[in-house]
Structure to design on (274 residues):
């Protein structure tokens, strides 16, 4: 991707040229926060295949909470899915302490650390904090200091990440909720417009840089579906996908391993009649 930089008053305006990678471009599925939920991962991968996705990239939190960490890692490894480090992944391999985690997250971390074999733990330890694709990048949380795993909740948080990178579009997870932000020098050449928009399908426009939160595959928590995003790097089109979440199946999988069903799931299950 070509990048031209125009110096303003204290800001560097980045101008991008799309379509410079013809021949290498692909349709990507960006997934995140699988949290050891193999059934949800398989549903999402099947959905992505129906949409002709060439390459899946995972924004982290492969493990934590769920019933099948080894099953999820097996699929990611077998399919050579590039994956970045999430806070739960870092906690399981001992790179991050669990002091700031809620009880169920601490319990999941300890359980997965015990349950995973050496090979899977080594694979988790090897995950990078940032994945760089053709014209886009993926991290679990904030891009300015990816190891810190700070949440992106506001348009200013998003701007901070966007200004730390040159890519036209960035993808994250971590909050488990889809989100869309954009930053551009549109109304003033010297001061950036920063916006949070309702997540919707869109095509990248020249004047903007974007940050997209793809939500969660395996632990939606405040939504009643799995979510992920399809990005076509040749056209610049971004599509938010939602896939039915099997609450009944997930609850049985938890109970089969004597893992407590989290309160949010009981609530969501009632809404969904489970
Ligand atoms: Fe997560």
């Amino acid at each position: 991707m070509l990048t031209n930089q125009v110096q303003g008053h204290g800001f560097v305006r980045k101008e991008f040229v799309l379509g410079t990678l013809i021949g290498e471009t692909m349709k990507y599925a960006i997934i995140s926060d699988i949290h050891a939920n193999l059934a949800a991962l398989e549903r999402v991968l099947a959905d992505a295949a129906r949409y002709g996705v060439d390459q899946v990239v995972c924004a982290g939190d492969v493990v934590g909470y769920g019933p099948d960490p080894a099953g999820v890692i097996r699929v990611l490894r077998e399919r050579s899915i590039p994956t970045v480090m999430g806070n739960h992944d870092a906690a399981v391999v001992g790179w991050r302490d669990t002091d700031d985690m809620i009880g169920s997250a601490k319990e999941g971390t300890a359980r997965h650390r015990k349950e995973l074999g050496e090979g899977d733990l080594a694979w988790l330890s090897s995950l990078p904090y940032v994945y760089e694709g053709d014209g886009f990048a993926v991290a679990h949380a904030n891009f300015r200091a990816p190891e810190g795993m700070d949440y992106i909740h506001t348009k200013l948080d998003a701007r901070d990440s966007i200004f730390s990178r040159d890519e036209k579009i960035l993808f994250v997870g971590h909050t488990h909720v889809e989100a869309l932000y954009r930053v551009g020098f549109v109304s003033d050449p010297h001061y950036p417009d920063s916006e949070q928009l309702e997540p919707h399908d869109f095509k990248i426009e020249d004047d903007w840089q974007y940050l997209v939160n793809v939500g969660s595959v395996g632990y939606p928590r405040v939504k009643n579906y799995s979510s992920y995003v399809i990005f076509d790097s040749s056209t610049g089109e971004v599509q938010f996908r939602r896939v039915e979440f099997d609450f009944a199946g997930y609850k049985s999988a938890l109970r089969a391993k004597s893992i407590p069903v989290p309160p949010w799931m009981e609530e969501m299950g009632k809404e969904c009649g489970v």
Observations:
- The helical segments are 38-50, 69-78, 87-92, 103-115, 118-125, 155-162, 247-256, 263-271.
- The domain at 25-268 is CATH 3.60.21.10 (Purple Acid Phosphatase; chain A, domain 2).
- Confidence is low (pLDDT under 50) at residues 1-22.
- The radius of gyration is 19 Å.
